[in-house]
Amino acid sequence: MNKVNVAILGATGAVGQELLEILLERQFPINSLKLLASPRSAGRELEFNGQKFVIEAVSAESFKDVDIAFFCAGGSVSQEWAQVATNAGAVVIDNTSAFRMDPNVPLVVPEVNGEAALNHQGIIANPNCSTIIMAMALKPIYNAVGIKRVVVSTYQAVSGAGNPAMDELKAQVLAYANDDEIKAEVFRYQILFNLIPHIDVADEAGYTKEEWKMINETKKIFGDDNIQITATTVRVPVMRSHSESINIETQEKLTVEQCKEILAKAPGIKVLDDLANYEYPMPLYTSGDDYVWVGRIREDLTVENGLNIWVVADQIRKGAALNAVQIGEYLLPHLR
Question: What's the whole-model pTM score?
Answer without folding.
Answer: 0.97
